[in-house]
Amino acid sequence: MFLFVPAVEVKIEVVIPEKERSKEEMSPNGKTSPLIYKVNGTARHYHLEEHPIASNPYHNPKDVVEASVCHVKDLENGQMREVDLGCGKALLIKESGEFHAVGHKCPHYGAPLVKGVLSRGRVRCPWHGACFNISTGDIEDFPGLDSLPRFQVKIEKEKVYIRASKQALQTQRRTKMMAKCISLSNYNLSSTNVLIVGAGAAGLVCAETLRQEGFSDRIVMCTMDRHLPYDRPKLSKVCSTSWNQGMVGSEKGEEKKAEILLEPHQGGLQSPLPPRGQEKPLYCLQCVFCRPKALSCKGKEVENVFNIRTPEDANRVVKLATSKNVVIVGASFLGMEVAAYLTERAHSVSVVELEEVPFKKFFGERVGRAVMKMFENNRVKFYMQTEVSELREQEGKLKEVVLKSGKVLRADVCVVGVGAVPATGFLKQSGINIDSKGFIVVNKMMQTNIPGVFAAGDAVTFPLALRNNKKVNVPHWQMAHMHGRIAALNMLAHGMEISTVPYLWTAMFGKSIRYAGHGEGFDDVVIQGDLDELKFVAFYTKSDEVVAVASMNYDPIVSKVAEVLAAGRTIRKRDHWWGFLFFRTGDMSWLTGKGS
């Protein structure tokens, strides 16, 4: 994914006349301006589901509830409590002697934040690692777009009262109010346009952040998809989710006022950058994704062989797989998630993998074997240390998958999940720095070597502070969100460097493995818990340093470790055994006081 802006100084005046503000906020028909997008060059209006958030949450007295929730001594510093206000719940927090109240559910997937981690003035979600400021409710780390509603707290006669909007209590999310701005009179409007090529997580968060920071000029998002932005991880985790049910930020359209160009012409552009001296500030590119690897065996063009890339792919696989034989090629995250989802729907599910154990390079052999056993207990058959040699057809449709081991598998549907490669070949003559593996190289501010050109998402390598600024590629949902935010802030000359802890999750058979850090090159895995019972914590170490952690049925330990790493602390292998005892009790003081 590319994010393009011209290399110019941005100046914004944050206050506008009341007359102009009313024009800015209203469309010609007097309603809130909808999201505007273009399909094949034709402008259309797309009205997304409205969840208006009033600038004054207590404007209507009938919408307000106030309740006494506890005594001031009921909470110690560093504690959180979920409290009931009668028409909804809030999260009450005490830190540094002050009380704060915010929404009690993470707006991403609804995780109870009271089970999360409180540290350094923010609460981190126990499920997927999103972080929220406890004073403002603002989202500070991802995934997700919405912030938490913030409620008024007052102390009277040593009792804690919360005053809240009923609507906010019910929705448990807050769309950030966009700053309404105008450019200075000497500011050239034609030079302030922003083009975002790709409408995935990075592109969407980039547009969102630009608007939040007061950028009022034109934003154009260009994507090869036929859909507005959606929750892409659900394509493999919940294969039958339709695109409009899985949308990311479906409540954002009225505020973004961005143009989205869906399915541009297939020829694309011949050059990614404007010719030298040309006045046009931006050029549109073909969308740059990491392209799924295809099979190279005989019969690879047979019908009913899929790379799941779109909602249509996922829905088609589910429909064809019902009561049929399915072969998954590749024990990757995508392959294993699809296999798990189809188990209850298909007649049979088989997984073919070149390695000895699934996830061995990522989770280690012991965790990989535990996961493999879970799949086998759910009727999934594995054919390991082999590859596909041929796909056989009958009347043009897949009939059998032949393995190099000689085994022949009956197959009506085949899903290929053997990895992806950056689709950046067309950039070789552009001047943009691309590494030997095809990834776009960016600095800590997501800038390429070309002034005014930023890159974000799965096809980039960037310096990871957690690993001493080693250039890494982290193709995960949370990281794409952060890439987009950092790029947007630096388009506006904030000088913001990326500093986040990678966080990911995978879901299979109703169980989730959560993971934080960057364990590439780990040389040991220290496991606590019971792998057979699928209740464990795995610490990945390199020399004496813990570089990553994974867990199943042990929340919120991964979020706890993520917070420690985010604070710049180092967890040493020699500290681990004591640390585990404190993790179980929730006390993090040993970590925040130790390490380098």
TrEMBL record:
GO terms for biological process: execution phase of apoptosis. Residues 67-162 form the Rieske domain. InterPro entries: FAD-oxidoreductase/Apoptosis, FAD/NAD-bd_sf, FAD/NAD-binding_dom, FAD/NAD-linked_Rdtase_dimer_sf, Reductase_C, Rieske_2Fe-2S, Rieske_2Fe-2S_sf. Pfam families: Pyr_redox_2 (PF07992), Reductase_C (PF14759), Rieske (PF00355). PROSITE patterns: RIESKE. GO terms for molecular function: 2 iron, 2 sulfur cluster binding; metal ion binding; oxidoreductase activity, acting on NAD(P)H. Keywords: 2Fe-2S, Apoptosis, Electron transport, FAD, Flavoprotein, Iron, Iron-sulfur, Metal-binding, Mitochondrion, Oxidoreductase, Transport. Belongs to the FAD-dependent oxidoreductase family. Induces apoptosis through a caspase dependent pathway. Reduces mitochondrial membrane potential. This is Apoptosis-inducing factor 3. The gene is Aifm3.
